[in-house]
Amino acid sequence: MKDVIILAIESSCDETACAIVKNGNEILADKVASQIDVHTLYGGVVPEVASRIHIENISIIIKETLKEADMTVEEVDAIAFTQGPGLIGSLHIGVLAAKTLAWAYNKPLIPVHHLTGHIYANAFVKELKFPLLALIVSGGHTELVLMKEDYDFEVIGETLDDAIGEAYDKVGRVLNLPYPGGPKIDKLAKEGKPIYKLPTPKVESPLDFSFSGLKSAVMQAINRLKRNNEELSIEDMCASFQKTALSFLWKKVEIALDNYEVKQLVLAGGVAANSQLRKIVEEKMKTDYPDIDYIIPPLKYCTDNAAMIGASAYIAYKKGIRATYDIGAKATLDF
Amino acid sequence: MYTIGIDTSHQFLLLVLMDDDKVIDGIQKECPKLQSEHIVLELDELLKKNNVLLKEVKSVVVTIGPGSYTGVRIGLTVAKILGSIVGKKVYTLSTLQLYAGVDNALVLLDARAGRCYVGRYNKGVAIREDSVLTNKEIKEMLNDDIILIGDLHLFDRESYYPEIAANFMLLKELWQKIENIDVLSPVYLKSSQEYLRK
Ligand SMILES: [Zn+2]
């Protein structure tokens, strides 16, 4: 079969990214302009600031990607882009860049749902096997997605309030840690012990998540220590929060694995970079689910990037999914 | 050879097809918040309708603000890609300058929160620097010796938007050639500091 080469653009949050991907699993070029330093200054992603940086980066990042692959736009088979979900002002820049390129070079235009990109990032590790269960964990999302076949997505569990990454950031703020809180908490947790008791979140539906209560639970625990004139160990609090959040998360995965016949579990999204979560998946899958294959994406493909959009777009391309020039960015978007 | 003019920094989607000395065709349609959806489709239709191929277009002239932040970025993103990747020449104009055209005019475009972007131009040249002023400050500047353009409904007058397409051509001598297209970014006039978490 003829090779399919896709140029993909991602701009849904605070990374302006472009990649060129061959046949959905071979990266010919991959560039990310991160804004993390700027947003660290402000303690979080400020949408207007993010949009301003995207437009500054967009053309140079595409140019550098083409240069790295030593290709011209004429040589690619299609242009893919993240349509949503994400920050609307940020998405606009990537969507327009993709539409303009597709129009100027008369190439098919492929819309990609950001979260399918996170799932298909696993295709860079090995072939996906269906039915598949994806655990998507990031700053904006916490979802369990069942895929009976390629490009068929069914959300079987989701968060009712905060995403897990959001909870990490909020707890980080409570503990006066710099943004983003996730990696910092993960690191400090390794130096502490989970000695503080935090209540496990309660939800009605067995596969749904809830993380907003954890922030208040941490605050209450800190206040209790203050009242009793006891010293707070940041490391121990990080370890306690992380253990409570991840045990709750994993419990849901177990319920899903016990109730749906799947051949593979894949981890996806920014929080998939969490070292403790990676360890849990590795250990639990080996001991408790030896018959189910699993993929943990390399750290590089956990955070937002365009290569994963190219990987997802390859399947979309083969399925005949195309966008017309009047397609718009969507801040919220279902699978 | 042809030039495309683009302005999306206010409530209009404005696309103009020009040759070296005249406007050939254009659209000026009101589509607030939908410029992103329409712009590429309309560009495609504009060229097709006039039997012009994109490769016959040698340059793009685009407004760089001030105006709606998202709006300005829409036109500018398209222009940056056409310039940086596709290889067209890129020129810019101030949005207020485009609205003023060659008139002796005061241009007022809503900047929200009781303020306007203010441009004072004569024959396409700025008499004072583009700025953001409160509507109270602006009220004192209003006089009927000059042409008032823009969101005049904020000042109990009837809003007036000229035929902007023609202005692109009339201001041709004043287009700013952009040498390094990749670093081109909008003129916001308002700092993003205002949007930071307190
Ligand atoms: Zn993401």
Portion of residues within helices of chain A: 40-55%
Principal-axis shape of chain A equals globular
Strand order of the largest sheet of chain B: 3-2-1-4-5-10
**Quick one: CATH superfamily of the largest domain in chain A?**
ATPase, nucleotide binding domain
Morphology of chain B: globular
* Overall CATH architecture of the largest domain in chain A: 2-Layer Sandwich
Structural class of chain A: alpha/beta
Considering the protein shown, what is the CATH homologous superfamily of the largest domain in chain B? Answer: ATPase, nucleotide binding domain
The rounded Rg of chain A comes to: 20 Å
Bound molecules: zinc ion
Continuous helix count of chain B: 5
Low-confidence stretches of chain B: none
CATH topology assignment of the largest domain in chain B: Nucleotidyltransferase, domain 5
**Radius of gyration of chain B over alpha carbons?**
16 Å
User: What series of H and E elements makes up the topology of chain B?
Assistant: EEEHEHEHEEEHEHE
Q: Give the rounded overall mean pLDDT of chain B.
A: 93
Poorly predicted spans of chain A: none
Give the biggest sheet of chain B.
Answer: 6 strands, mixed
The end-to-end span of chain B amounts to: 51 Å
User: Strand-residue fraction of chain A?
Assistant: 15-25%
Count of DSSP-assigned helices of chain A: 10
Describe this structure in words.
The complex is a heterodimer of chains A (335) and B (198). Chain A has 335 residues and is of the alpha/beta class. Chain A has 2 domains: 5-120 and 304-318, 2-Layer Sandwich (Nucleotidyltransferase, domain 5); 127-296, ATPase, nucleotide binding domain (Nucleotidyltransferase, domain 5), CATH 3.30.420.40. Helices cover 43% and strands 18% of the residues of chain A. Chain A has helices at 36-42, 47-69, 88-105, 114-120, 164-174, 181-190, 212-227, 234-259, 275-288, 307-318; strands at residues 5-10, 15-22, 26-34, 78-84, 109-113, 132-137, 142-147, 154-158, 264-268, 293-295. Chain A has a 5-stranded mixed β-sheet, sandwiched between helices. In chain A, a hairpin with a 4-residue loop joins strand 6 (132-137) and strand 7. In chain A, helix 4 crosses helix 10. The mean pLDDT of chain A is 96. Chain B has helices at residues 35-49, 69-84, 95-100, 135-139, 164-170, and strands at residues 2-7, 12-18, 23-30, 57-63, 89-93, 105-112, 115-122, 125-134, 147-150, 176-177. Helices cover 25% and strands 33% of the residues of chain B. Chain B starts with a strand and ends in a 21-residue tail after the last strand. Chain B folds into 2 domains: 2-96 and 163-196, ATPase, nucleotide binding domain (Nucleotidyltransferase, domain 5); 102-155, Nucleotidyltransferase, domain 5, CATH 3.30.420.200. Chain B is of the alpha/beta class and 198 residues long. In chain B, helix 1 (35-49) packs across helix 2. Chain B is built from 5 helices and 10 strands, in the order βββαβαβαβββαβαβ. The chains are: A alpha/beta (335), B alpha/beta (198). The A-B interface holds A 42-44, 46-49, 51-52, 55-56, 58-60, 62-63, 66, 73, 88-89, 92-93, 95-97, 99-101, 103-105, 324-329 and B 34, 36-41, 43-44, 54, 69-70, 73-74, 76-78, 80-86, 181-183, 185-186, 188, 192, 195-197. The complex binds zinc ion (ZN). Zinc ion binds next to helix 4 of chain A.
